[in-house]
Amino acid sequence: MAGSSERSQRGGHTGISIEDVAAAAGVSTATVSRAVRGLPKVSPVTRQKILEVAASLGYVASSSASGLATGRTRTIGILAPFVSRWFFSKAIEGADRELYARNYNLSLYNLGGHGGNRVRLFDKTMVYKQIDALLVLCMALSHEELEHLHKIEIPLIVVGGHVEECSYIGIDDYAAASVAVQHLVDLGHRDIALVHGDNQTDLNFDVPRVRILAYHDVMRKAGLDPQPGWEQWGDFTLLSGQDAFRRIWNLPGRKPTAIFCASDEMAMGVIFEAARAGVNVPGELSVIGIDDHDFSEAMGLTTVAQRPDEQAELATKMLLDELDGHVGAVKSAVARHELILRATTAPPRA
Amino acid sequence: MAGSSERSQRGGHTGISIEDVAAAAGVSTATVSRAVRGLPKVSPVTRQKILEVAASLGYVASSSASGLATGRTRTIGILAPFVSRWFFSKAIEGADRELYARNYNLSLYNLGGHGGNRVRLFDKTMVYKQIDALLVLCMALSHEELEHLHKIEIPLIVVGGHVEECSYIGIDDYAAASVAVQHLVDLGHRDIALVHGDNQTDLNFDVPRVRILAYHDVMRKAGLDPQPGWEQWGDFTLLSGQDAFRRIWNLPGRKPTAIFCASDEMAMGVIFEAARAGVNVPGELSVIGIDDHDFSEAMGLTTVAQRPDEQAELATKMLLDELDGHVGAVKSAVARHELILRATTAPPRA
DNA sequence: TTGTAAGCGTTATCAT
DNA sequence: ATGATAACGCTTACAA
Q1: In B, which residues are within 8 Å of A298 by CB distance?
Q2: So where are chain A's domains?
């Protein structure tokens, strides 16, 4: 019974079904199912025949149907506060590489405009019964959210920073920031300003705090005592870097000879604004960032590099391994960072 | 009849089902289905009761099951050659706004690393029975692909340029490029170079060609005759802009006094490289791009602005309207562009 | 190796 | 307004 030709009432929307293939190949649907999924216990000749028929009919299994039958969607979700920013778009590409290689789909949940009511994501649209695992980018999750996720029992991992209560992958922010500040100290700078990430919002959660801490520690160890007002916040964007520079430069008194920025984008903002103010980089002002943004090399920006794509790729691999039954595959890991010397840092003017 | 507690053989992975809710509320599954979907013909009191029970149980409908029953996945696919480039990430954010507002999911198909074998996307992973509609970003589809898509009968639209045989949304590339070149001509430039997009690859398909054509037309009408070698190709990236500048500047003979770049990123590459070569912008060299990239304002880059997010948002709206039964909702449209004068263009030196 | 048939959780038709 | 119930297309014991 039932070829796609003689299909009933609701939607003819479904195309070629497994029954059509079975009928055309003269076998049962069970055998077709086994054959197309490459399962064993199908004779070579039968499989061959079925594959041919399936191909000629253009058969593709309905993901809804197999999802319903197996309880798996073969889709993993990526939760991101933004997509059009360097870290996030790179991470998405990295995750996608692994997903593509292992034949999974990628469902993107962007908090961008609608960050406020992320509640909804956890209730309706999202997560629940739509994805097999969740990759969270640079966000802290609330207690409730984590609990909710935990209850659903889907593998979960956070990329881009430390977050309590669950596995995470990211660079050692303390070490990375320390390296950056120490580089400035080593060059002989004593008046070092800081443009850090906002730690009011949950974006990047711990990350800003840790980087600030590292700055303070390195400064203290070097016997340096930054001016109040030389610590400005930003939100990791170019624009906020520009603003921060202006606030620092408009301060009365002497100027810093170097600025450490918690992201390359902010560093670029500082550099553009410095240029506008006629401040020579690195002659009068050294600038260092963190990230190694796509534009950093072209701008000659000295930075501490990280690779969000690799981080997300690894995280995705762990998620998929866990789904493949490798219990314990998902675990925290520290990603590498590396100081890259370029043209925006130099010893302070004598 | 089954509560999630007494569930059989395969996976207990499924959580609370509609039956659980029905049982707890003392109604049939049919009524629960109507109630939770906000359908009419449910008495207020019944609905209220059901909603309460559903909420307390944390019930969420299985997308696989409803997908199977309705033939709709409530997911639209976005096909992009890259995600970590300005146009694409912005477009994704724009599409997401509309999708989120209308409670659809977003499935991302990135051709990034694996662009070569995009075949697979159309066969296996993708499209077929996984998504209700497809948004294509800046790519030409082959005849077979289009036919395939057409056969599946899912709404389809292309954003970011003209493509034959299907609806598309994008700026008028000819007009936009003309405005840019004309701006240089109006400033008095006669020696105008071009850094255009690659038209070998299918990325942006028609777009590069049309922009080149506009350049030629405007030049000819102005009675200008560009040097051979002043036309360099790029691939829309910063790096390729740098390379192009070097190739142009290394040419023997006189230098152009202005360069029109087919994208802001390439324009930035030209500017960075010009700075490195000690060429003053706009003193010795005017530079104009197309896009109005996030960084363009900070860099003072004169450009012809476009808004990929708005384009994708509109395209998505059309797709969803079509799915809502508004036949003919999907149709081609021209998006706006606007010349933005900033600091990288000026009259040529006397 | 292959077939039979019972689910999987919804939705939608048809009664009531 | 509500309830039975038959699909939806696939997977997977279990039987053959």
Answers
A1: 238-239, 242, 268-269, 272-273
A2: 2-70, 75-170+309-335, 173-307
Of B90, B96, B107, the CB nearest to A105: B107
Cα-only R_g, chain A? 26
For the CA atoms of chain B, what is the radius of gyration? Answer: 26
* pLDDT value of residue A164: 78
According to the CATH classification, is domain B173-307 in 3.40.50.2300? yes
CB spacing of A105 vs B130 below 8 angstroms: yes
Q: What is the pLDDT of residues B254-289, one digit of tens each?
A: 999 999 999 999 999 999 999 999 999 999 999 999
Cross-chain Cβ contact A84/B82 below 8 Å: no
pLDDT > 90: what percent of chain A?
A: 76
Residue B103 has pLDDT above 80, yes or no: yes
CA of B14 vs chain A CAs: smallest distance (Å)? 7
Q: CATH homologous superfamily of domain A2-70?
A: lambda repressor-like DNA-binding domains (1.10.260.40)
Q: Is the pLDDT of residue B251 over 90?
A: yes
Say if B75-170+309-335 and B173-307 have the same CATH topology.
Answer: yes
Stated pTM of the model: 0.94
8 Å CB contact between B76 and B135: yes
Which residues in chain B have Cβ-Cβ distances shorter than 8 Å to A316? none
Using DSSP, state whether B291 is helix, strand or coil: strand
Q: Do B108 and A106 touch (CB under 8 A)?
A: yes
What is residue B4's predicted lDDT score, i.e. its pLDDT?
Answer: 39
Q: Which residues of A touch B64 (CB under 8 A)?
A: 63-65, 67-68, 73, 129
What was the pLDDT predicted at A139?
79
Residue A149 clears pLDDT 80, i.e. is over it: no
What are B234-245's pLDDT values in tens digits? Answer: 999 999 999 999
Arithmetic mean of pLDDT, B18-38: 96
- The CATH number fitting domain B75-170+309-335, selected from 3.40.50.12780, 3.40.50.2300, 3.30.70.660, 3.60.21.10: 3.40.50.2300
Cα–Cα distance measured from residue B210 to residue B34, given in angstroms and rounded to the nearest whole number: 52
Q: What tokens does B262 get?
A: 């087919």
Query: What pairs with residue B78 in β-bridges?
Result: B108, B135
pLDDT of amino acid A200 = 59
**Sequence-ordered alpha helix ranges (H) in chain B:** 18-25, 29-36, 44-57, 63-70, 86-101, 119-123, 143-152, 173-186, 206-221, 238-249, 264-276, 296-299, 308-323
Question: Given this model, what pLDDT does residue B9 score?
Answer: 38
* Dist. CA B265–CA B55, nearest whole Å: 49
Assign B123 a pLDDT band (cuts: 50, 70, 90). Answer: low
Helix (H) or strand (E) holding B133: strand B133-137
Q: Name the nucleotide with the smallest C1'–CA separation from B47.
A: D1
